[in-house]
Recover the amino acids of this structure.
């Protein structure tokens, strides 16, 4: 991808920032002024360090809009066309604690560059405020308030993908077998840190109706959610292939997270290797993998160059492929803990 301009998409319930001449120029640190479940879209082009954000205009007419002309549907068609042209899969990413919008864009641009995937990010107001337990508690509250927004986002993505696949089926029915189009792409979801707490609250919510079934793989990375009873909500995640949970016992950020409330904060799912009881999830232990150390984000940076097994593990998860079967000669399985250990 050297020298090629990148494009990612942002869906967010953050507030919209405006210039002095009232142009929409970016996203802020708090909820959308209309409501926490109000969504806006943006197309971001450029590179991880230098990019331009175009906030997609919303329809101003009060008349019902032809659904084919709705901005979000047009962006989805643009995404599908990019996936076809570049033979790529799509990664839907939900970030975690203390992420300004610039950090989200940079990480997603790096995902695209390193793993050759199209990227959609759901961004919620998780900007750093006052340090310590007060800020942490505040962001957990904001994650809870973002449940409906994430659900609405997934509903739309589900609707558009279903409509697209139905259209392909109808067109194929009119063609000879040799001319029929095959949908070889996958959609996959990855959530980092407190983004998993947001997913947990969605799974436990009455608004959830299995919208995550569009994803082949669902990857819970360094999850900042309770290990205790996690199987109850993890096993509710609808998916097409696999759920992966990544763990690093030495994760510095999750260790700090655990002591935020003293005895009130229980062991975090992303740094605890006991009580791994989900009947659907595959647990991947990165604790002793070369170069991981106390990292909270062992899916990016120089680590991918230094440890090719880690790169391949995330590459396969982000593209809807299997890890534990294909890489079984590289991973050490512990049947007692139900962990696959990454070297």
């Amino acid at each position: 991808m050297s020298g090629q301009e990148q494009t990612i998409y942002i869906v967010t319930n953050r507030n919209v920032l405006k210039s002095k001449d009232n142009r929409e120029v970016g996203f802020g640190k708090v909820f959308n002024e209309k409501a926490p479940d109000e969504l806006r879209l943006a197309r971001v082009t450029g590179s991880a360090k230098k990019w331009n954000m175009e906030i997609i205009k919303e329809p101003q007419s009060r008349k019902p809009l032809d659904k084919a002309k709705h901005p979000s549907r047009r962006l989805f068609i643009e995404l599908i066309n990019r996936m076809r042209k570049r033979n790529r899969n799509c990664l839907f990413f939900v970030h975690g604690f203390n992420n300004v919008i610039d950090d989200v864009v940079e990480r997603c641009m790096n995902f695209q560059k390193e793993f050759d995937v199209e990227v959609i990010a759901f961004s919620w107001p998780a900007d750093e405020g006052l340090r310590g337990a007060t800020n942490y508690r505040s962001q957990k509250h904001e994650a809870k308030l973002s449940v409906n927004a994430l659900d609405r986002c997934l509903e739309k993505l589900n609707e558009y993908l279903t409509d697209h696949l139905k259209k392909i089926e109808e067109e194929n029915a009119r063609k000879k077998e040799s001319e029929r189009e095959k949908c070889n792409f996958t959609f996959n979801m990855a959530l980092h840190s407190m983004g998993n707490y947001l997913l947990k609250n969605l799974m436990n919510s009455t608004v959830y109706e299995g919208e995550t079934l569009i994803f082949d793989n669902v990857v819970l990375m360094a999850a900042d959610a309770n290990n205790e009873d996690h199987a109850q909500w993890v096993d509710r995640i609808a998916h097409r292939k696999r759920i992966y949970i990544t763990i690093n016992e030495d994760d510095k950020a999750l260790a700090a997270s655990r002591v935020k409330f003293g005895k009130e904060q229980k062991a975090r799912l992303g740094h605890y290797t006991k009580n791994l009881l989900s009947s659907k999830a595959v647990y991947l232990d990165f604790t002793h993998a070369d170069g991981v150390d106390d990292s909270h984000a062992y899916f990016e940076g120089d680590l991918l160059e230094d440890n090719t097994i880690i790169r391949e593990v995330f590459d396969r998860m982000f593209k809807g492929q299997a890890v534990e079967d294909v890489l079984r000669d590289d991973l050490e399985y512990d049947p007692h803990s139900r962990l696959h250990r990454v070297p």
